[in-house]
């Protein structure tokens, strides 16, 4: 067995990767600005239109890509750690779908126009209810099968209710936006969206970071973890609230982006020696890198088409999921 | 000085009483074997004492806040769960969890406790291997080492010797006996009455959720009581100054 | 689906996707009545006799028919004719029976002339033809020549040729009045529609913009028909004028893109004309009013002539309609 990269080096390498992708994300777009023009516009404000493009269109998009990717990777790793199940993922479990439903209710009712915070709050509420329902249904003791089935049922229900709400909206455009809520997109997001979602994402990260120690102990099962001084009720609260707040806010501004929370922890688990607490920051960086790369790819593949992010993440993620199902088949049976 | 005091501790699972009100006291230097048939309430008594199961009455351990309790007692559950492919050394190191500040690196004391526990359970040779790749018996030893690394004054273990080969059964019981000899204490539930008779300083026998006998192995393990509690005929003898127990046949009803 | 305006039409076509296109390919020839129509048709009349029971299934034929029909001649208009977002004549639609484009209800009205759009209610149209009804279909108007032609054809169908000629002449007079001086500056306008769609060459919106003496950014960037115009390219185009579609209530995400902060500096400099969806949806005499409003906005922008106030784009029942 090859000796894995020491942990600090791993984090540093991931950090460099994320920084590089962040810069590429700033440089890619239909306006076709040159490298030096982009830099001059971004940093020195040279050229009015260029500055608008760099500072008001590309910068918030790149920042959101980074934060949402980190959110999905982190919450995927935390949910997997808590449920002790490598198949757990906010999207597959229906947490993202429930957040979408909450956001849809906030936007299309017009509530978010009157009270902007209604958007992240209602998405958080949806994600929180879904997480609690899942943990209640499948529980920390439930097997992989129960968990996945509960997630499938919840996703289907939330998807149907979202479609219903959009179809019933008197606004003729609403029905065309189902794709955004199912697949997610960062196109034309602004600093307004960053400002709305960032506080909830940061709070969620803090809660999930607090959970790391408990998740390590949970490797030994609930009883042993409790005997090691872990307060399971607090740990559950941290995971549920942390995932709900961060995934809820991410979904509220970018729609439901699947599979990042599955792929990022899976790719990095071996590199961190499978330790749940160490996986958290690594998966956050990995998720950020994945989402930034996906968002760059959608702009390069079909620049004029507004290809949805979730299309790409699912194309990459679904085969991973199948592989994982195969490898956990014995437990599912 | 008592390491565990139970006063009228009772445990229910729904409507069923798993443990009737029980008094028990464990002091330093004791290796207490908890014996009795399946469903006698051994696991429930230990989980109730640790505050892991909802219990009536008083337990000196359950009364402690969680971090203090983790420093006062180690617990080795019967279910041998290892969720992730962490290395053996990492897993054993989880035993140091209650003794370390969040985010603190391993101290010298931590390292020597981990190394000592691994050596004691004969697993130092695969310290770097993922724990999930080991055999069932090897995993059991890793988990015992985890509990030993915790270096708590009291260790409670639910059937730690089950599934081990004879050599490692002896090593396992030897480790608990060493704890007792160092002035700590251990409570160990056992189905192997031979091991119980050979290593324990005291046996507590349970049946139907009640303690039916408590005392030295010689006094607890009598042919009549084993017939009454387990429904078995037993061959009892002595060797090297200790009791030897060999179940022979089922008693005739 | 109830998708109004050029944008909405395009979105509907995108959604309906291949089905709509396949339908178009297989369509029955648009103008001629089906040959060998069964004899169950209403009492036959001479070709020159004006129809007396006219039913319209399409928003655009609704409006042309309402403008041109003699009193009592038009029986029913589509439900969209009373939708304030798409109908410039919703106030007058209330005077007619409402239909929802279903063959059954049309059949019960026993019309002697059915008016439809070439892209709407295909199944209904072919069924009505099989049942022997006379159905005339009108293609959407993409320029003013098409509008003139449709006005005259509608006049001929309804036996109102003189009124049609007068209406076309009045429209041309309005267009002439809105026309810029040959040497007037031609500011750049950007059409901002929901979900970053924009209209380029070959669309009615483009004709309105150019008739008002403006250049259309979408067309200059090479868009023909409807296409997405990414926000970045819009900003880089630095338009002098933003023409935004009026948003619906309740809101939608697609329309929120029109309020992106990157557009704020452009708006502060250029101002924004609310685009009256209703008058931009169908080519009709009132389309010239949209041109006149936009032309006034252009003059305000360039300081040409007296400083004309921005005319709020309130599509009242239009003057031509008398």
UniProtKB/TrEMBL annotation, chain A:
This protein's record includes keyword Transmembrane: yes
UniProt topology in membrane: Multi-pass membrane protein
One Pfam family matching this protein: FecCD
Keyword Membrane part of the UniProt annotation: yes
CDD domains recorded: TM_ABC_iron-siderophores_like
Annotated GO biological process: siderophore-iron import into cell
Family: Belongs to the binding-protein-dependent transport system permease family. FecCD subfamily.
Protein name: Iron complex transport system permease protein
Protein's organism: Albimonas donghaensis
Organism placement in taxonomy: Bacteria, Pseudomonadati, Pseudomonadota, Alphaproteobacteria, Rhodobacterales
TrEMBL record, chain B:
SMART domains: AAA
Domain ABC transporter: 4-233
Gene3D superfamilies tied to this protein: P-loop containing nucleotide triphosphate hydrolases (3.40.50.300)
One GO MF term: ATP hydrolysis activity
Top-level taxon: Bacteria
SUPFAM superfamilies: P-loop containing nucleoside triphosphate hydrolases (SSF52540)
ATP-binding is among the record's keywords: yes
Alphabetized UniProt keyword annotations: ATP-binding, Nucleotide-binding, Translocase, Transport
Pfam families the UniProt entry points to: ABC_tran
Record's function text: Part of the ABC transporter complex HmuTUV involved in hemin import. Responsible for energy coupling to the transport system.
Descriptive protein name: Iron complex transport system ATP-binding protein
Automatic annotation (TrEMBL), chain C:
Domain called Fe/B12 periplasmic-binding: residue spans: 53-305
Keyword terms: Signal
Official protein name in the record: Iron complex transport system substrate-binding protein
Statement: the UniProt record of this protein carries the keyword Nucleus: no
Organism lineage: Bacteria, Pseudomonadati, Pseudomonadota, Alphaproteobacteria, Rhodobacterales
GO biological process: one example: cellular response to iron ion
Signal sequence, start to end: 1-27
Matching Pfam families: Peripla_BP_2
Highest rank taxon of the organism: Bacteria
Xref: InterPro entries: ABC_Transporter_SBP, ABC_transptr_periplasmic_BD
Originating organism: Albimonas donghaensis
């Amino acid at each position: 067995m090859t000796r894995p990269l020491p942990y600090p080096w791993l984090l540093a390498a991931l950090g460099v990767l994320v920084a590089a992708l962040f810069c590429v994300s700033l440089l890619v777009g239909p306006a076709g600005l040159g490298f030096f023009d982009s830099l001059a516009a971004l940093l020195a404000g040279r050229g009015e239109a260029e500055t608008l493009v760099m500072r008001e269109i590309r910068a918030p998009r790149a920042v959101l890509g980074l934060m949402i990717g980190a959110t999905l990777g982190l919450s995927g790793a935390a949910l997997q750690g808590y449920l002790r199940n490598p198949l757990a993922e906010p999207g597959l479990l229906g947490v993202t779908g429930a957040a979408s439903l909450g956001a849809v209710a906030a936007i299309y009712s017009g509530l978010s126009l009157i009270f902007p915070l209604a958007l992240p709050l209602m998405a958080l509420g949806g994600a929180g209810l879904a997480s609690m329902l899942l943990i209640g249904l499948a529980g920390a003791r439930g097997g992989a099968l129960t968990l996945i089935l509960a997630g499938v049922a919840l996703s289907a229900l939330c998807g149907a209710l979202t479609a219903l709400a959009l179809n019933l909206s008197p606004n003729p455009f609403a029905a065309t936006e189902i794709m955004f809520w199912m697949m997610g997109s960062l196109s034309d997001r602004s600093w307004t969206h960053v400002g709305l979602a960032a506080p909830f994402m940061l709070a969620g990260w803090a809660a999930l970071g607090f959970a790391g120690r408990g998740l390590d102990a949970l490797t030994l099962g609930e009883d042993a973890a409790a005997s090691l001084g872990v307060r399971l009720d607090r740990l559950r609260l941290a995971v549920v609230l942390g995932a709900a707040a961060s995934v809820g806010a991410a979904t509220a501004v970018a729609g439901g982006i699947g599979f990042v929370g599955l792929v990022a922890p899976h790719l990095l688990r071996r590199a961190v020696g499978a330790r749940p607490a160490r996986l958290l920051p690594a998966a956050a960086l990995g998720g950020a890198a994945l989402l930034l790369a996906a968002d760059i790819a959608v702009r390069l593949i079909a620049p004029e088409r507004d290809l949805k992010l979730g299309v790409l993440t699912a194309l990459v993620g679904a085969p991973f999921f199948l592989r994982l199902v195969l490898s956990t088949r014995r437990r599912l049976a | 000085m008592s390491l565990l005091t139970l006063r009228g501790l009772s445990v229910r699972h729904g409507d069923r009483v798993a443990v009737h009100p029980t008094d028990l006291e464990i002091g330093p230097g004791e290796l207490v074997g908890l014996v009795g048939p399946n469903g006698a309430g051994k696991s429930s008594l230990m989980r109730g004492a640790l505050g892991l199961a909802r219990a009536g009455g008083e337990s000196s351990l359950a009364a402690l806040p969680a971090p203090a309790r983790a420093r006062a007692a180690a617990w080795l559950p019967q279910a041998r769960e290892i969720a992730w492919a962490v290395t053996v050394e990492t897993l054993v190191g989880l035993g140091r969890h209650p003794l370390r500040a969040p985010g603190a690196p391993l101290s010298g004391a931590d390292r020597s406790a981990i190394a000592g526990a691994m050596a004691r359970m004969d697993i130092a040779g695969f310290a770097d291997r993922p724990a999930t790749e080991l055999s069932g018996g090897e995993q059991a030893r890793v988990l015992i080492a985890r509990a030993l690394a915790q270096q708590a004054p009291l260790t409670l273990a639910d059937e730690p010797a089950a599934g081990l080969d004879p050599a490692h059964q002896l090593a396992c019981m030897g480790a608990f006996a060493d704890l007792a000899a160092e002035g700590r204490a251990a409570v160990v539930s056992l189905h192997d009455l031979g091991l119980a008779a050979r290593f324990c300083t005291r046996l507590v026998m349970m049946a139907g959720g009640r303690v039916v006998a408590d005392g030295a192995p010689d006094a607890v393990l009598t042919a009549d009581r084993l017939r009454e509690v387990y429904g078995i005929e037993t061959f009892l003898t002595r060797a090297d100054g200790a009791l030897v127990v060999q179940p022979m046949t089922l008693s005739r009803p | 689906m109830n998708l109004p305006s050029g944008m909405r039409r395009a979105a509907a076509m995108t959604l309906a996707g291949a089905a709509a296109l396949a339908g178009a390919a297989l369509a029955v020839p648009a103008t001629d009545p089906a040959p060998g129509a069964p004899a169950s048709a209403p009492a036959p009349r001479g070709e020159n006799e004006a129809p007396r029971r006219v039913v319209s299934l399409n928003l655009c034929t609704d409006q042309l028919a309402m403008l041109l029909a003699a009193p009592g001649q038009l029986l029913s208009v589509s439900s969209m004719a009373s939708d304030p977002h798409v109908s410039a004549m919703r106030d007058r639609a209330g005077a007619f029976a409402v239909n929802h484009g279903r063959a059954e209800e049309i059949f019960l009205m026993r019309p002697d002339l059915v008016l439809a759009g070439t892209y709407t209610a295909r199944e209904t149209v072919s069924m009505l033809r099989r049942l022997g009804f006379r159905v005339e279909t009108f293609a959407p108007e993409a320029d003013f020549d098409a509008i003139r032609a449709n006005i005259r054809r509608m006049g001929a169908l309804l036996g109102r040729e003189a009124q049609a000629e007068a209406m076309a002449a009045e429209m041309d007079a309005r267009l002439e009045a809105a026309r810029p001086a040959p040497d007037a500056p031609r500011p750049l306008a950007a059409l901002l529609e929901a979900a970053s769609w924009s209209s380029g060459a070959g669309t009615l919106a483009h004709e309105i913009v150019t008739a008002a003496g403006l250049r259309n950014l979408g067309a200059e960037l090479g868009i023909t028909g409807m296409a997405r115009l990414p926000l970045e390219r819009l900003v880089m185009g630095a338009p002098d004028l933003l023409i935004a579609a009026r948003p619906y209530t309740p809101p939608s995400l697609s329309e929120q893109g029109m309020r992106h902060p990157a557009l704020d500096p452009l708006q502060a400099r250029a101002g924004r004309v609310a685009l009256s969806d209703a008058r931009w949806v169908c080519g009709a005499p009132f389309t010239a009013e949209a041109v006149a409003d936009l032309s006034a906005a252009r003059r305000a922008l360039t300081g040409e002539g007296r400083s004309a106030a921005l005319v709020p784009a309130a599509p009242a029942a239009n003057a031509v309609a008398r």
